[in-house]
Amino acid sequence: MLRRLVLAAALSLPVAGGAQPPIVIKFSHVVAPDTPKGKAARRFKELVEARSGGRVKVDVYADSQLYKDKEEMEALQLGSVQMLAPSLAKFGPLGVKEFEVFDLPYLFKDTAAFRAVTDGPLGAELLRRLEPKGIKGLAYWDNGFQIMSANRPLHRASDFKGLRMRIQSSKVLDAQMRALGAIPQVMAFSEVRQALQSGLVDGTENVPSNLYTQRVHELQKHMTLSNHGHLAYAVIVNKKFWDGLPADVRDTLEAALKDATTYANAIASDENDLALLAIRASGRTRIYTPTPAEMDEWKKALMPVHKEMETRVGKATIEAAYRATGFSAPK
């Protein structure tokens, strides 16, 4: 794998001589083109190419065309790709464990609470912590609240007992599933549908737009609107590549990304609502809304994860998130 990545990086270098070639940015991501992230990446490409007057070309590779979850981060650090938008859970395995604060169950009561973190001092500080890894963090893209899916009803916390649930590689998500009595299974996003189809895993968590575009509703009979977690991405670039760009090109990229971020965050809620409607209309999956009493039971089962993860995420980071969101543990 390392040899392939180094070769890809070498082949991406411009050839000397002749007209000055455009600066090429390979932007890789793992979800479908018609998801909020996929659409935002395309919007960024369009804005950059229009505003740079041909000086910059953005090639977007969606749906794990180039690399899977773990591979793409290594590819970015090696310079085989220049830009990614991985989910925030991907930075814990990279060594920036503080990012797993975003995975704490029921931390965000609404989108405004989430944005209070990403748009505030804590969000900026977390992006800065990527720089020693050779990564420059540029923006956060929101994708809304996650729901649960399985082939049996998930009404109460006890319904998870013994289920093999796919998660991203996050110790917080691992603890979350274990708190529910489930067996967490770390797996690349591109492998989830096949794993559900083969029975390797019993269920998963994600936002409706990702579940719908991967046709998970064709394989899972039940989904529960638990809204237990919030999915978001960080738009990141190879730091050496970024620092080597002409200042005016960086300005153009930053302005285009600011507009693409506004677009991404604006469409996330509507895209997920439309996906949920489409899942309902398919008639293949029963969608359940927990009662207030059931929701209280979920929260009671999951709150110990916050305390358990203090040594992993950092108590100071968790407390900073609490202050930003106005979070208080349910009684």
Automatic annotation (TrEMBL):
Keywords: Signal, Transport
The keyword Signal is assigned to this record: yes
Family: Belongs to the bacterial solute-binding protein 7 family.
Signal peptide (UniProt feature, chain positions): 1-19
Claim: Signal is one of the keywords in the record: yes
Top-level taxon in the UniProt lineage: Bacteria
Highest classification ranks of the organism: Bacteria, Pseudomonadati, Pseudomonadota, Betaproteobacteria, Burkholderiales
Protein name in the entry: C4-dicarboxylate-binding protein DctP
Organism of derivation: Roseateles asaccharophilus
